[in-house]
Specification:
Helix content is 30%, strand content 25%. It contains 9 helices and 19 strands. Its cofactor is Zn(2+).
């Protein structure tokens, strides 16, 4: 693909002065710089083109050759007298780098000097009753806090750290390597942009000390396993006076010995004697709030029969000052229990009942009628 005219790339006329060329280059380089157009191949290619154009047009000899021969002056097509391809445009870029991105780099250096602390995670287990009512828990969190002796600066007597002499506070150093200018983390300050001449004895210059903290955590009613609670500013202390990270509480609700939970719905499996299930009656069941509710058992109830208690399940999770939705329900599921350890008299009564109860077991009759048909079909 043919190269674009250098003057058109920079948007200037062929009679432009040196200052006009530099000003046009600054505008184009700022617009196309990779730091402002991350992962954009088009901007990256354009940035290289304007750098090449500026490298040629800023030099009077190269510009004169370009005005006379165009791009051919740098492609080896002019014999021994032609210019070679422009080499290190890093030097050209360095001329205006501070003007273009001084504020940006300075801001980045400031962020490196005062780094935010890391976020922390704490796994907290609560009972189903605590998840129902909500509770305030006291937890102990290991971690770091800002050093009180130096107020987090890392310097003895809370003195302000000095600007790194190697990188002038940018946290980065640049070096030209052939065609490119390479930027690396400053080896003197490790990217902080500052150095501590007299480190604090209490924290060895880090600005942080290890210390366990006791915090009060409000667990709202209705939490489920996996619920996350964020405590802003309760994470690790930042370095060199930077802000603290956040603490995230991850809730795990323990399994209950009586109730099973599915969202807001609670389920309670209640064993019922064979006679009570057949005759019907009334049973008393527990509720998660510690109360009791009476439930009527219909005559002829089978295992798996369910009854619903409205509003006796879990509350909705609170959002801000209000609540969303209504409390869930509680399902009572019947389990018909077969009697064991029968006495002689009980056996006699059950045998007598079995002889006269042929019409009282419709499911058994239906099942064995199907079985009989199956066997006859196989025999036929």
């Amino acid at each position: 693909m043919a190269k674009r005219d250098f003057y058109q790339l920079l948007g200037i006329s062929r009679g432009a002065t040196g200052d006009e060329i530099k000003k046009a280059y600054r505008t184009k380089a700022k617009e196309l710089h990779p730091d402002r157009n991350q992962d954009c191949k088009i901007s990256e290619a354009g940035f290289k083109e304007v750098n090449e154009a500026y490298e040629v047009l800023r030099d009077p000899q190269k510009r004169a050759a370009y005005d006379r021969f165009g791009h051919a002056a740098f492609e080896g097509g002019m014999g021994g007298g032609g210019f070679h391809h422009p080499g290190d445009f890093g030097s050209a870029f360095a001329d205006v780098f501070e003007d273009l991105f001084g504020d940006y780099v300075g801001a980045r250096g400031a962020r490196n000097r005062a780094a935010r602390g890391q976020d922390l995670r704490y796994n907290l287990r609560v009972t189903l009753e605590e998840a129902f009512t909500g509770i305030v828990k006291q937890i102990t969190v290991p971690g770091s806090t800002a050093c009180g002796a130096c107020n987090g600066t890392g310097a003895e007597g809370a003195a302000e750290p000095a600007t790194c002499p190697t990188c002038a506070g940018m946290g980065k150093v640049r070096a030209s390597q052939g065609f490119f200018t390479v930027e690396r983390t400053c080896p003197t300050c490790n990217g902080a942009g500052q150095i501590v001449k007299n480190p604090c004895n209490a924290c060895d210059g880090s600005g942080r000390i290890e210390k366990d903290r006791t915090l009060s955590v409000t667990i709202p009613a209705g939490v489920e396993s996996g619920t996350r609670i964020r405590l802003a500013g309760e994470g690790e202390a930042g370095s060199r006076g930077g802000p603290q990270g956040d603490l995230y509480i991850f809730i795990e609700v323990r399994e209950h010995e009586i109730f099973l939970r599915d969202g807001r719905t609670l389920a309670c499996r209640v064993p019922v004697g064979m006679a009570s299930a057949a005759l019907g009656g009334e049973i008393e069941v527990p509720t998660i709030d510690g109360g009791r509710s009476k439930v009527k058992i219909p005559a002829g109830s089978q295992t798996g029969k369910q009854m619903r208690l409205r509003g006796k399940g879990m509350p909705p999770l609170r959002h801000g000052a209000g609540m969303q939705g209504e409390p869930g329900d509680m399902l009572i599921e019947i389990m018909v229990e077969t009697p064991v350890n029968l006495t002689t008299r009980q056996r006699e009564l059950l045998r007598e009942f079995d002889q006269i109860a042929a019409d009282n077991n419709p499911q058994s009759q239906s099942f064995f009628t199907k079985v009989k048909g199956f066997w006859e079909g196989m025999t036929g």
